[in-house]
Amino acid sequence: MQTVILNNGVDMPILGFGVFQIPPEQTEQAVTDALAAGYRLLDTAAAYLNEEAVGRAIKNSGIPREELFVTTKVWIQDAGEENTKRSFETSLGKLGLDHLDLYLIHQPIGDVHGSWRAMENLHREGRIRAIGVANFHPDRLVDLIVNNDVTPAVNQIETHPFFQRATDQEVMREHGVQIQSWGGFAEGRNNLFTHPVLSEIADKHGKSVAQVVLRWLSQRDIVAIPKSVRADRMAENIDVFDFELTDDQMASIAGLDTGRSLFFDHRDPAMVSRLAGLRIHD
């Protein structure tokens, strides 16, 4: 598996398996199948409510812990220094692990600086190998960087052919932050899986559109975490390192960028209010 080296020297697989929107009762089998297919990066979150199932799959896999890269995230409800410490312990317990490879602030809302102080301390104690954020636009990311000691290792943001985030990626590159994609397939919106540009490229390589998108992300040095509950799709999605897109093909995909989210904008006041009101526990 190809890897990227984070700003603290930690190796992270460039392709992993995400469990967003997989129901808890299906998650253990999905992660078991993903590990069997060769995935070693697993991405979950407190807000997904399936950390325990991920943990069971890890425990039963027999794969040495050092071969795995496990990510989870702290939710808005648990923002702040003390709340984040408690949330970290809860997530670690549910996963059945003694450390995390990556811990992220899930949303740029609430007392993110307090959360970051807690995460910096956990990182110094060796309980987290790397710390980062998700859904931070460049201004919020730089604010966090200049006002704290540790620069985020990762920023996980919506990134797909229709919202390519090239400017965001350049800001991250300048500050040594690794970009990671969520929603790499745009959840099939804009007819992604049958899009003529992507389909033509896929046909030329004898690959699927999904494989072309994942290869496009990896060639941009973007970490991706595609989700599936089908073992055959998992195997297909990880089989993307035996071909390379040409410069012309990369340029054709670049032309699909709309510059806008297909889901929601974290700078929209109504969305901020809605997200802040989402509670994942009593």
Task: Compute the CA-based radius of gyration.
Answer: 18 Å
By CATH, the superfamily comes out as NADP-dependent oxidoreductase domain
What is the helix tally? 11
Backbone structural class: alpha/beta
Spatial separation of the terminal alpha carbons: 40 Å
Kindly provide the name of the CATH class.
Answer: Alpha Beta
Return the domain count. 1
Number of extended strands? 10
Task: Quote the CATH topology.
Answer: TIM Barrel
Q: Give unreliable regions as ranges.
A: none
What does the average pLDDT come to? 97
Keywords: NADP, Oxidoreductase
Organism: Streptomyces mirabilis
Protein name: Aldo/keto reductase
Pfam family, one: Aldo_ket_red
In short:
With 282 residues, the chain is of the alpha/beta class. The protein is built from 11 helices and 10 strands.
